Amino acid sequence: MRDVAIASFAQATFERSSKDEVELLVDVITRARAESRLSKSDIGFTCSASCDYLGGRPFSFVSALDAVGAWPPISESHVEMDGAWALYEAWVRLQHGDVDAALVYAFGRSSQGNLNQVLSTQLDPYFLAPLWPEGDSLAGLQARAMIDAGVCSEDEIGSIATPRYGDGAAAMVLVAGPLLERASNAAVIRGIDHRIEAHSIGARDLTRSSSTQLAAEKAGACRRDVDVAVACAPYAYQEILLRRALSLTDRTRFTFLGGNSVYPYIVAGLSSVGEAFAKIASGKALSAVAHATSGPCLQQNLVCLLEVQP
Amino acid sequence: MNYAVTRMLAPVRLPFVVTPGEALSRFLSALVEGRLIGERCSECSKVVLPPRGACPTCGIATNPRDNVTVSDGGTVVMFCIVNIPFEGQTIKPPYVYASILLDGADVPLLHLVEVPVDKARMGMRVRAEWAPPTERKPSLEAIRWFVPTGEPDASYEAYKEYA
Amino acid sequence: MSERCAVIGVGQTKYAAKRGDLSIAGLVREAAERALADAELRWRDIDAVVIGKAPDMFEGVMMPELYLADALGAVGKPMMRVHTAGSVGGSTAIAASHLVQAGVHERVLTVAFEKQSEGDAMWALSPKYPFQPPLVAGAGGFFAPLIRAYMRRSGAPNDVGVRVAVKDRLNALRNQYAHLQLADISPETVLSSPMLWDPIRYLETCPSSDGACAMVLSNEANAGRTSRPPAWVLGSAVRSEPAVFAGRDQINPRAGADCARDVYRQAGVTDPVREIDVAEIYVPFSWFEPMWLENLGFCEPNFGWRMTLDETTSLSGRLPVNPSGGVLSSNPIGASGMIRFAEAALQVRGMAGEHQVDGARVALGHAYGGASQFFAMWVVGARKP
After folding, report:
1. What span, in angstroms and rounded, lies between the C-alpha atoms of A233 and A161?
2. Which one of B153, C161, C175, C199 has the minimum C-beta count within 10 Å?
3. CA-closest candidate to residue C368, choices C332, C330, C343, C340
């Protein structure tokens, strides 16, 4: 494995934006490129993330390509997942050694629909989805399970409020090899891993986030004495599970994205990594752990360990 | 009693309130006024419509100052004849669906051409037939279809880059 | 690249208009189990799963990798979901191969599927959307004008599309998995089929299929452990360009030509028509065979149709194209690209059965998507690179 580092990050998050995907993206991509001091032609691989169900329109990533300026044609892939998984695909691609810079971006405009309801379509289409359990209902089940298991008290959980799903876009530039040597304020990805759990709610232990814990172990981030940790999830109570699963020391400053703040679905995970990077780039931390999640009740999780560029 | 479940219906109905974005909003508002606008990229000078808020090849943001009015007349550069009915179709097949390069634009616009299907051809000159002002909505339906102008056909050399 | 990557297992479902006997999970599992059996592996031997499919709206299941984690044995493992429109089956296989080549994993299961019978793909491709009147439905309406423009540009005779439509359906009769089994196919039946989007006739289009395709990809150390021969990945590439821009050549898109050049360079192919023994090319409408032959550098621009007419691309020709019957015979959209990649692998492994091309050593798998703007390709070979 060779070192791959985050060179820059830019994002924009809104409760509701009058801009469309391309308009949101062209701004953050331009900023991320400028901050990395790389030009369009330096980028050897591009990976994007979006989800058609946010806007109720298929092929949302196709028109978003207009924000990149994909001419001459570019080497590019797309995940229908949170942007953190696009980062993962780009990190893998940069291991090959033939290209030294990658652009990762994610976008989503949840404000166009009722995401709490739309998320029902993520469920098993034969046994679960036809019952239309909304995101909040499943969150309620998880919170109840936590209380019943004595993981936390009802007071600690509070009430389950529908997340403020919002609009947003984020872009990140990754560098490796000679471009990493020339970079300043980069954060090296020391480990990155993601794991998925069973889909069936009844087959899972909802009172812990085993996939977060496993991903953290595989990424070398478990029980790590890092300066900061950034985790994200739509519901406030999920912070309790993530803190435990990441097994951080008392010294680590923990930031949770979600709960009461605007939660840009699809962008949130990449944003979490971006926030961790920003702490390192600004000199506020030498090491950081970042977390991303996907699926109902934290079904799938990604953990990334970052360190300041040596 | 044993039942074999061979089929189940699980309809999905999800409402969305879609917003077109700022650049496309300007285009749609202009349609109500009976105008077609494109965006001229400040870097490559090419005029793209409908506007996207960014130049697709340069990847730089465009803004309202980059808007230019494009003619509602142009050349059919490609077409097909649609013979099949489908849900939501507004006109009865067969009809001509065409890629029309408007004068002053650098990318073609997709729309209908009101012409007997056996008269349709590449290079045909056409002009927009607008819906009456009171009936125009912020949609490409503000143009009913394009109709032949009767001008001589454009030479293949003139538009082959777009076909 | 630190590791070599090989295809050691291929699994396909029977493709059909409706696989009412299987759920979506059952469908992907049928393909995955066959790939595992071919690779002589068990579920626990797999390190990670990479899944791909076309838009979620085709089945109405959002981010279906979440629901399919259990069926694909991915619990506790990394699982990724790729979506690059029609090219997705190819891009998914490539993303999976990268995990092996990067040395992240040793054995990766990659799966692509579509269960068109459980949704309405035609609707999902052309949803009623404000601002945009519904003028045309389905991909045929989009691609028909391009075909007419290609005919004009190349001066191809009118029957080229008919010839491809017949050739691929005859090939499909040799493929047990193919959806369409049209024993009575002939130029006359194609010509007398309804004209849908003139110049595209019904029998010049691909069907709508249910189906899944899976492959097990492995590093070199594990590739030597199976009794069946592996297919080595000699080169892979993806390329994208915007859907609409000034002066775009949609018939011979640069993204496709660049992608082919890249993949040939990696594989050491300098004269594709001589060095590639068989090609599985994504041809959803018959006229795309000659168009892609040109784009892929098998001939000069405007000469592709001659290769079809002189039977270069027939099963016994110099460059057999789509011996499996191709997309024209089976089209589970999200899987269609991976089927091309998997069929290329089967050919160089000598495991393509009735549609095996004798002595195939090097094969091309090709997929494209969107407005002819997303491309994924790989070249696989019998010999280790």
Report:
1. 13
2. B153
3. C340
Is residue C253 included in any domain, yes or no?
Answer: no
User: What is residue A307's three-state secondary structure?
Assistant: strand
Task: Note whether residue C320 is domain-resident.
Answer: no
Instruction: Give the CB-side neighbour count of residue C287, counting CA atoms within 13 A.
Output: 25
Q: What is the CATH number of the domain that holds C59?
A: 3.40.47.10
Residue of B8, B24, B59 lying closest to A20 (CB–CB) = B24
CA distance A154 to C128: 45
Transcribe C6-45 into DSSP letters.
EEEEEEEPPPBS--TT--HHHHHHHHHHHHHHHHT--GGG
Contact A170, A30 (CB under 8 A): no
B56–A69 CB contact, under 8 Å? yes
Bridge partners of B67?
B39
The C-alpha atoms of residue B160 and residue C3 are separated, in whole angstroms, by 46
Neighbours of B45 (CB within 10 A): 10
Contact A67 B59 (CB under 8 A): yes
Residues C240-276: tens digit of each pLDDT: 999 999 999 999 999 999 999 999 999 999 999 999 9
Give C31's contacts (C-beta < 8 A, 6+ positions apart): C11, C12, C13, C111, C113, C211, C212, C213, C214
Per-residue pLDDT reduced to its tens digit, C333-384: 999 999 999 999 999 999 999 999 999 999 999 999 999 999 999 999 999 9
What does the alpha-carbon distance between residue C220 and residue A290 come to, in Å, rounded to a whole number? 33
Helices A21-36 and B22-32 meet at what angle, rounded to 10?
140
Q: Is A266 helix (H, G, I), strand (E, B) or coil?
A: coil
- Give the ipTM of the model, two decimals please: 0.98
Contact in structure between C232 and C350 (CB atoms under 8 Å): no
Establish whether the linkage from the previous residue to B50 is cis, with ω within 30° of 0: yes
Examine residue C186 and state whether it is found in any structural domain, yes or no.
Answer: no
Chain C interface includes A205 (CB < 8 A): no
Which residues of chain A register pLDDT less than 50?
A: none
Question: Is residue A142 within 8 Å of residue A157, measured between CB atoms?
Answer: no
What is the spatial distance between Cα A235 and Cα C224, in angstroms, rounded to a whole number?
48
SS3 state of residue A176: strand
DSSP per position, C55-80: -GGGTT-SSTHHHHTTTTT-TTS-EE
Nearest chain B CA: its distance from C247 CA (Å): 6
Question: What pLDDT score was predicted for residue C33?
Answer: 98
Neighbours of chain C (3+ CB pairs under 8 A): A, B
Q: Would the CB atoms of A112 and B55 count as touching at under 8 Å?
A: no
CATH class of residue range A4-112+164-187: alpha beta
Cβ atoms within 10 Å, residue C233: 27
Q: How many CB pairs under 8 A join B and C?
A: 113
**What is the distance in angstroms between the Cα of C121 and the nearest Cα belonging to chain A?**
10
Q: Do A112 and B24 touch (CB under 8 A)?
A: no
Residues contacting C198, CB < 8 A, separation 6+? B80, B81, B82, B83, B94, B117, C144
Give yes or no for B36 touching C (CB within 8 A): no
Residue type, A163: P
How many structural domains are present in chain C?
1
Placement of tokens 């959803």 in the chain: C284
Domain that holds residue C215: 5-121+207-223
- What is the mean predicted confidence (pLDDT) over C277-284? 98
Alpha-carbon A103 to chain mean position? 15
Q: Where are the domains of chain A?
A: 4-112+164-187, 117-157, 188-308
Per the domain annotation, does C54 fall within a domain? yes
Query: DSSP secondary-structure letter at B129?
Result: E
Structure letter (DSSP) for residue A123: S
Nearest one of A67, B46, A44, A150 to C238, comparing CA atoms: A44
